[in-house]
Amino acid sequence: MKELNVATGLENGSVIVAKNGKNTENGHEKCTFHHDLELDHRPPTREALLPDMASSYRLLLTGLGEDPKRQGLLKTPERAAKAMLFFTKGYDQSLEEVLNNAIFDEDTDEMVVVKDIEMFSMCEHHLVPFYGKVSIGYLPQGKILGLSKLARIVEIYSRRLQVQERLTKQIALAVTQAVRPAGVAVVVEGVHMCMVMRGVQKINSKTVTSTMLGVFRDDPKTREEFLNLVHFK
Ligand SMILES: Nc1nc2c(ncn2[C@@H]2O[C@H](COP(=O)(O)OP(=O)(O)OP(=O)(O)O)[C@@H](O)[C@H]2O)c(=O)[nH]1
Ligand SMILES: [Zn+2]
């Protein structure tokens, strides 16, 4: 039996044809794959795996000492499975699809900052949420991105099983890929429920991560301007 990607429910390395008709590998667009695309051999989508996921939640309820047949819990496994699919819906999105070509030629090299974008993600170690805010800055060189797309980029990568460091970097790399700016800065401030509700139980601790690329990494003044604008100094 082929190994399943736990996060996507797909066979590792497998190809599916997404709703938009594009070939995707575990949710990510992939052009150079030559796997069997015969309809009958397509692995199930995440939605198709809902009943299996619900069964797992039923087992979990039993493991907790609960009775999955009691009235209040009857639909809980299906609800929980759907909720988990929603929390991880970023796996079903690709950068290209989300950007929808909202990239515009513009003769500007002034800093663009969108700050305090809400973020909800799932800690990949404990499967509990971490949440917080993301601030993104970039220095265009001839191309700007539709403003909402910065928030949508946050959604693609936060709605997955994550660690905050990787989330921060993926957002920065996505902006780079989209508009090839002179630099990108991303700061993420997160509260991890695995540190609040369990474990060390530090309810006031916040984790701050940053990725600085290009001029934001090389030039302290540019970095400082960004940090001033997002009040991170
Ligand atoms: N670097 C990083 N660590 C994370 C993130 N989310 C959770 N963790 C940590 O993952 C670690 C897992 O450590 P383990 O010792 O294997 O698990 P644990 O016994 O549940 O750890 P405690 O949380 O200390 O009770 C913990 O230190 C968590 O705080 C994250 O986004 N980034
Ligand atoms: Zn955790």
TrEMBL record:
<dbReference type="GO" id="GO:0006729">
    <property type="term" value="P:tetrahydrobiopterin biosynthetic process"/>
</dbReference>
<dbReference type="InterPro" id="IPR020602">
    <property type="entry name" value="GTP_CycHdrlase_I_dom"/>
</dbReference>
<comment type="subunit">
    <text>Toroid-shaped homodecamer, composed of two pentamers of five dimers.</text>
</comment>
<dbReference type="InterPro" id="IPR001474">
    <property type="entry name" value="GTP_CycHdrlase_I"/>
</dbReference>
<dbReference type="InterPro" id="IPR018234">
    <property type="entry name" value="GTP_CycHdrlase_I_CS"/>
</dbReference>
<dbReference type="GO" id="GO:0005525">
    <property type="term" value="F:GTP binding"/>
</dbReference>
<keyword id="KW-0378">Hydrolase</keyword>
<dbReference type="GO" id="GO:0046148">
    <property type="term" value="P:pigment biosynthetic process"/>
</dbReference>
<feature type="domain" description="GTP cyclohydrolase I">
    <location>
        <begin position="55"/>
        <end position="230"/>
    </location>
</feature>
<comment type="similarity">
    <text>Belongs to the GTP cyclohydrolase I family.</text>
</comment>
<dbReference type="GO" id="GO:0046654">
    <property type="term" value="P:tetrahydrofolate biosynthetic process"/>
</dbReference>
<dbReference type="GO" id="GO:0005737">
    <property type="term" value="C:cytoplasm"/>
</dbReference>
<keyword id="KW-0547">Nucleotide-binding</keyword>
<dbReference type="Pfam" id="PF01227">
    <property type="entry name" value="GTP_cyclohydroI"/>
</dbReference>
<keyword id="KW-0342">GTP-binding</keyword>
<comment type="pathway">
    <text>Cofactor biosynthesis; 7,8-dihydroneopterin triphosphate biosynthesis; 7,8-dihydroneopterin triphosphate from GTP: step 1/1.</text>
</comment>
<dbReference type="GO" id="GO:0003934">
    <property type="term" value="F:GTP cyclohydrolase I activity"/>
</dbReference>
<dbReference type="GO" id="GO:0008270">
    <property type="term" value="F:zinc ion binding"/>
</dbReference>
<keyword id="KW-0783">Tetrahydrobiopterin biosynthesis</keyword>
<dbReference type="InterPro" id="IPR043133">
    <property type="entry name" value="GTP-CH-I_C/QueF"/>
</dbReference>
<dbReference type="InterPro" id="IPR043134">
    <property type="entry name" value="GTP-CH-I_N"/>
</dbReference>
<protein>
    <recommendedName>
        <fullName>GTP cyclohydrolase 1</fullName>
        <ecNumber>3.5.4.16</ecNumber>
    </recommendedName>
</protein>
